[in-house]
Amino acid sequence: MEAEPPLYPVAGAAGPQGAEDRLGVPDGPEAPLDELVGAYPNYNEEEEERRYYRRKRLGVLKNVLAASAGGMLTYGVYLGLLQMQLILHYDETYREVKYGNMGLPDIDSKMLMGINVTPIAALLYTPVLIRFFGTKWMMFLAVGIYALFVSTNYWERYYTLVPSAVALGMAIVPLWASMGNYITRMAQKYYEYSHYKEQDEQGPQQRPPRGSHAPYLLVFQAIFYSFFHLSFACAQLPMIYFLNHYLYDLNHTLYNVQNCGTNSQGILLGFNKTVLRTLPRSRNLIVVESVLMAVAFLAMLLVLGLCGAAYRPTEEIDLRSVGWGNIFQLPFKHVRDFRLRHLVPFFIYSGFEVLFACTGLALGYGVCSVGLERLAYLLVAYSLGASASSALGLLGLWLPRPVPLVAGAGLHLLLTLSLFFWGPKPRTLQHIWTLYAVAVLWGVGSALNKTGISTLLGILYEDKERQDFIFTIYHWWQAVAIFTVYLGSSLPMKAKLTVLLVTLVASAASYLWMEQKLRRGVVPRQPRIPRPQHKVRGYRYLEEDNSDESDAEGERGGCGGGGRGDCAEEEAPPAGLRPGPEPAGLYRRPCPYEQAQGGDGPEEQ
Predict the structure, then answer these.
(1) What average pLDDT score do residues 344-352 get?
(2) Do 548 and 560 meet the contact criterion of CB atoms below 8 Å apart?
């Protein structure tokens, strides 16, 4: 009776089928090593590389969508809460019943001062914060400060509202500067992942051609500002679904209003001090604020969980290693660049036109004539028009670069001239469709303005070492413009329209002059970015001072302890190799592993 074969063949021994298996490969000690540890026979390196970079490109798209949605939710919650809060605090009955003699108007004025005045100092600290925390973490921290502002409205007191408003004012410029920088970096990374074969041929140190990422930048900025302008519509949801049910109609709120539009003075002169028919219950207010807090927390999670890093870790280290003094000075040194000086009027106008849409157009023309209960619908019309028209920024793919930006300025010029001669009557609904049309058209101009400026900055300043400085300067000038509007809120409407018109004409003329200079070949003067100064060079065992040495090695001055002067004399290279430069990899110091083995590194091989 034959013995049954073993269930598992003994390693190294020939099985019952002989010294070869069914595939004809020898078994046991004679088996070739390549068959055991070699590459997978069906492995296609080119296909795997293509799939890898496709996943990278999808990751970039995910980053852009997450950052855009996070910015939309953050700004929408902030605007919606601030609008609802100011309307409630404006009502005399609400103040007296809820807060008594606490001085709520004084708290509101100081809160608005904190939001509008604090960003003036942002040029001093924004680049330092972005370089210190990194672009993604700066976005997350700023969104968290917006959420902090929302949370303080659960307990409305001076010591909660005013400090949170000051913190919010400090976070405004860092948030939007890091957002602009982030979208630009995503466009550059998408180009790298789409043209990886060209990058391999050119080498890792070779920069891509100038303007190569511009098509992707146009698309990503259009996506970002489509989401951003939707924030104005999201901000009206508390008004539409909650606060409008408590408001008086226009015959009560506008009873003493005499002039609207171009004939008005300040903001809603003569507006009734009581705008609420019934006071909302505290429980309902807490529910609305809790929903807003949940949305703000969702925005934080979007930025934290779905947004990837804007730079590689080594790039982040390089950006910080230029020196904090240089990081502080470089935004001021960029004033030497004539391109930035020519774009400053457009930066200022970009802040003017958004505030005019939310205050001058919506309040001085809209609420003054059709009532507070229709304010939300006017801003929704502006928001939807701006969001849909952000796709017009893609015209830059086919048209010359100045066309979208100048077209938006031209549309705003026509609307401003029209508003200069239009004064609708109070408590009249016959102009409501005209107001909606003006709001939509103003949104179209705003979209062309925002997408045009951000895309232009990303194209003119491709160096990743400068982008955070450039976007900081852009949003700082916007903050200066918003502060100016805050100071001049009591001016007549004609004075506001005159300032808006002069700024618009100056910005368009200055921009066209800049483009003319660039066509003539005038070279801009850019400040030099210092080289990174790393305190640690390479790995520890490649440093001059070996941090892994023992005390005994340090005392006897072995090769691992001191410099090369403490080691035994090295063997001279062959005579034929003496004249040329020494290869960096052949005559290096042995690593700790080689020292432990008793060898002297590659020299003895």
Answers:
(1) 95
(2) yes
Please name the residue that has the structure tokens 């928001």.
383
Q: Cα 113 vs. chain centroid, distance in angstroms?
A: 25
pLDDT in tens, 507-542: 999 999 999 999 999 988 888 888 887 765 544 444
How far, in whole angstroms, is CA 311 from its chain's centroid? 13
Residues 6+ apart with CB under 8 A from 211: 459, 462
How many Å from the N-terminal Cα to the C-terminal Cα in the chain?
Answer: 59
Tokens representing 43 are 């492995």
Residues 483-517, buried b or exposed e (16+ Cβ, 10 A)? Answer: bbbeeeeebbbbebbebbbebbeebbeebeebbee
- Considering only CA atoms, which of 272, 355, 277 is closest in space to residue 90? 272
pLDDT attached to residue 582:
44
Name the pTM for this structure.
0.81
DSSP class per residue in 127-171: HHHHHHH-HHHHHHHHHHHHHHHHHGGGS--HHHHHHHHHHHHHH
How distant, in Å, are the alpha carbons of 193, 348, 426 from that of 477?
34, 6, 35
**Paired strand residues for 15:** 18
Q: How many helices (H) and strands (E) does the chain have?
A: 23, 0
| Tens digits of residue pLDDT in 245-292 | 999 999 899 988 888 989 888 888 889 999 999 999 989 999 999 999
